[in-house]
Amino acid sequence: MPPDVLELPGVVRRVALWVPDWPVAAAVAEGLVGAHEPVAVHDGRGVVVASAAARAQGVRRGMRRRTAQSACPELVLLGVDDARDVRAFEPVVQAVEEVVAGVEVARPGVLLMAARGPSRHVGSEEALAEALVGVVARDSGAECQVGIGDGLLTAVLAARSSVLVPPGTPAARAFLAPHDVRVLDYVAGTRRLRAELADLVDLLRRLGLRTLGALADLPTGDVAARFGSLGVLAHRLARGADLTPPVARRPEQDVLVRADLDPPAERADVAAFVARGLAEELAERLARRGAVCGRLTVTARTEDGGELVRTWRLDGAPTAPELTDRVRWQLEGWLSGRSDRPPSAPLTRLELTAEEVSPAGAVSDGLWGRRGRGEVQAERAALRVQGLLGPEGVLVPVLQGGRDPRSRARLVVWGDEPEPLRRVDAPWPGRLPAPSPATVPAQPRQVEVLDGEGRPVGVDARGAMSGEPAHVVDGGERLEVLGWAGPWPMVERWWAARPEERRRRAWLQVSVARSPALLLALADGAWWVEGVYD
Hints:
Layout: E1 13-18, H1 22-29, E2 39-42, E3 47-50, H2 52-56, H3 65-71, E4 76-79, H4 82-96, E5 104-107, E6 110-114, H5 116-122, H6 125-140, E7 145-150, H7 152-161, H8 169-176, H9 191-206, H10 212-216, H11 220-238, E8 255-265, H12 268-288, E9 291-302, E10 307-313, H13 320-335, E11 347-359, H14 373-389, E12 395-399, H15 405-408, E13 409-413, E14 445-450, E15 471-474, E16 477-492, E17 503-512, E18 517-523, E19 526-533
Parallel strand pairs: 2-4, 5-10
Antiparallel strand pairs: 1-6, 1-7, 2-3, 5-6, 8-11, 9-10, 9-11, 12-13, 14-15, 14-19, 15-16, 16-17, 17-18, 18-19
């Protein structure tokens, strides 16, 4: 073992509490599925987590939906819902707070806390683990696992194995060494970091670095030169350290932002609008100071003087949408009615506190300078419009993978992560050829396509047309066809058991007089305008 990793300074001994398959357990707690049904939660790209009953029939994390359903025909598929996971997790957090103070939420299903003080209070680390498992089972009905170890990744992996790793860096290194580098994403609290770590893990495995021990044995300088800051973070975790190195200087002062709710808020969506503005302000203040924070504390004060407090563990330099998500989830957890200690009165004040603030050279203005005044004003205007029309009042388009223009465009609520559900760079066999139409109508409109003798044009099962298009009748107006291309038959979901789930279409590009070119689709015996080439 290299001498520079025999003992790492400043590593915190942590307790990690993990509830297995939490997204599934949350769906059970919300009454969406039964406790013994085979269930899988997917994000549109693959299975994120599967229940024990689903795993027994061959369903695995990362499987495509079709593959998972083939392995388990009675599988119940649910979409990812972070707000649902947090709502259901709040009783678990409150149960743990009966035993330990200073609980941090890493993500729904995972809690972190310091080990030294609580273990001394109850007598030993073994007694602390037993107390946490017992109180969670008694107060929330959830079955959890507890692990204790030096460093963040050590504690999280110890919880997944229900073990207590002896103190000291050598013990943590020996425990981590045989684990696959894929376990690095267990400590990721955001989709952004999880995706970045997935790319890094793929590169490490292709280079032959398949275990944490192999990664930890590399010199720190070589890792920084080859893999950058993300590689250094992974290297620290593999060595049993925390996400951020200890600093000799005094930690910087916490950053606090607050806002009054007038009128007082009783619903989570009302308070979420204020929370979004506060999260933007907090992120901007951290960026101006060139700093990152390790924890976010959300404090809500009620009309009768009550107070609700929750702390979230953060990784890296959180963006405004990531801060907003955590605050919105927490408000839903408090105001959904599932909490054992719901607000005693409407909320009158909301405070966000960035804690464990430390310098970060990576947090600075963008490569091309500060954001323009117009961009900031546009964001504020969008926020005001959402306050008037609701969250769905302002939508942002996101390009994603698909075979036709309508499926390649996804609308997300402004402020949420603009992530595609399907990979853009996937092959997508059978997709329409370029160019794509500039405009896709919100709802396709029906038209008629006629040949030179006025007869409707159709397309048979082999993709042959019954006649050459001569006219398109659109809203009573007869447009002459100047040129056309196609047709391109497209059959999707041909394997579906029910005929109504199968999609059979034929696509046609037409250039018409006195109008922009059109993209037409023949479905169920009728032609529809699916795009306009402006």
